[in-house]
Specification:
Elements: H1 9-16, H2 22-31, E1 43-48, H3 71-90, E2 94-98, E3 144-147, H4 159-165, E4 170-176, H5 178-191, E5 195-204, H6 208-221, E6 224-226, H7 228-238
Parallel strand pairs: 1-2, 1-4, 2-3, 4-5, 5-6
Length: 239
């Protein structure tokens, strides 16, 4: 069932040519980037920080309370819902991560944000609205929820052990932000020799350029960036 490596470098260059100069493209062609890693036999879905503080509230008068929210987050939610439904139908694990801070901020470490954010209802403070999962993609009772202290879903969490215990060889990643927590998680997943798959329409960022460059970086050296429909087809073949 394991997908063989496919030389799909031309697709990679066609998709990302607008981000690189001709000399840079030539250098990457010589290096042979853009080959597909493919899916394995035992996948898990990682839903990264699909929390309300990440998505603009429907009531625009509350936007000041949600300083980290972005419109592209709302656009990704239907795709994340599609992925969670497909993984549940396939009977494969779904693991959610979340950011969560104490109200006094004592556990925030060196996070670089103003003290005033600790008082906002739209930040990821325990008991706040912002810390809640988005209703449309909230975890079910059988799903696993991990609270992470840093951008990577692996750092300081039991994720590695959970994946090993279940024999997982493939992680499919959705959520946000692309250039922060998604990227950090993809780097570590790749370092653990997990087949790392990013769902293109299921990740989001506050900065379009950061989003595009991060997807290019992951696709050229850490994993595969694929469409949601490709993941659905893969899951259908597992059964």
């Amino acid at each position: 069932m394991t997908t063989q490596d496919i030389d799909s470098s031309e697709e990679f260059f066609e998709r990302n040519a607008h981000l690189m100069s001709a000399d840079e493209i030539d250098a990457l062609r010589r290096f042979g980037v853009g080959r597909r890693i493919g899916f394995g036999r035992k996948p898990a879905l990682l839903v990264i920080d699909a929390q309300k503080y990440m998505v603009e509230p429907a009531d625009s008068s509350k936007s000041d309370q949600y300083p980290a929210a972005c419109a592209s987050g709302a656009a990704a939610m239907p795709v994340i819902a599609q992925m969670t439904a497909a993984f549940r139908a396939a009977g494969t694990p779904i693991i959610y991560t979340r950011n969560l801070l104490r109200r006094d901020g004592a556990d925030r470490g060196l996070k670089r944000f103003p003290e005033k954010l600790l008082a906002l209802e739209g930040w990821f403070i325990e008991g706040s609205k912002g810390a809640e999962f988005i209703d449309a993609v909230a975890p079910h009772a059988e799903d696993i929820v991990i609270t992470k202290p840093k951008p990577s879903a692996f750092h300081g969490t039991p994720l590695t052990g959970l994946l090993i215990n279940r024999g997982i060889d493939t992680v499919v990643i959705v959520g946000g932000a692309t250039s922060n927590c998604v990227r950090a998680t993809a780097i570590e997943a790749s370092a653990y020799n997990l087949r790392t798959i990013i769902v293109r329409e299921g990740v989001f960022d506050r900065v379009r350029l950061s989003h595009e460059v991060t997807l290019m970086d992951i696709d050229r050296q850490m994993g595969d960036v694929v469409d949601a429909d490709e993941v659905v087809r893969y899951l259908s073949r597992l059964n």
